[in-house]
Amino acid sequence: MEKKNDKEYAVANLASIDDYNKLYGLPTLHPLVAVIDLKKATKVVNRIKMEYGIYALFLKNNSNCRVLYGREPYDYQEGTVTSFSPGQIIGVEMKNDELASDAIGLLFHPDILYGTPLGDKINQFRYFDYSQREALHLSDTERALFVECVEKINQELQHPVDHHSASVISANILVLLEYIDRFYDRQFITRHKVNSDIVANFERQLREYYNDPHCDVVPSVAYFAGKSNLTPGYFGDLVKKETGITAQDTISRHIINVACQRLSATDNDISIIAYDLGFQYPQHFSRLFKRITGQSPTEYRKIRSN
Fold first, then answer.
1. Residue 249 pLDDT grade (very low, low, confident, very high; cuts 50, 70, 90)
2. What is the value of pTM for the model shown?
3. Burial of 175 (0-12, 13-18, 19+ CB in 10 A)
4. CA–CA dist 212, 58 (Å, integer)
């Protein structure tokens, strides 16, 4: 760890479970998995930037620290869960002169995924890429389930390693991740009013984007997610939960609706219409048009002109 002055962050590269445990003065019971109780930390870590090379989940029990993703604070209050994945850089600032936050957590190294059902499904748990305002807020019942799952993993870590250990541990991690996925589904539902406003803004911004007769580029999901200060993953999941279709399909359908209007109302060449809609290559526009309408742009225009 590189120590900087008090106004800057110390930097820690967390390439292994042991790297994290050494940072906080905690024991390492297993090289690939750890259950963390930060109240038991024996080293002071007040202001640090962590470069994660492992997966991590934390349930926070108090509000004496601030967690940052880039420059944005997590929506990370008492009783919330945050999740981090390899490649993320997270800043932590303690508010008081305490050793660590009152939080419990689960850490696991990517190596434990190989050849397991957990490895087959890990990419489906998109919340590992969520950030900023996207933490999971647990009910009391959900919180009890989270703690129960973590405790089962901890009990297995106390057991002498045998040929069942990796399978049992990864299976219990998978159960916890499935629960978190379910809890996020519930959160999308209970935050319907806020989420519906985000979707309404997205649809308005999409219409405004194509009010310009000539666009330089086809807008991406990430573009609209950024306007809502959300990650593309969380934004895409939110739109799908609210509307039943993906954010990308929403964009594509609107583009084709605009294209249909221009094909009907003008005699502009199809390549010109494609460029004006932001497509670099007209054939990409034609493929998208046929996928959505079942017709090529030429066929559509010919039928509409008869």
1. very high
2. 0.73
3. middle
4. 45
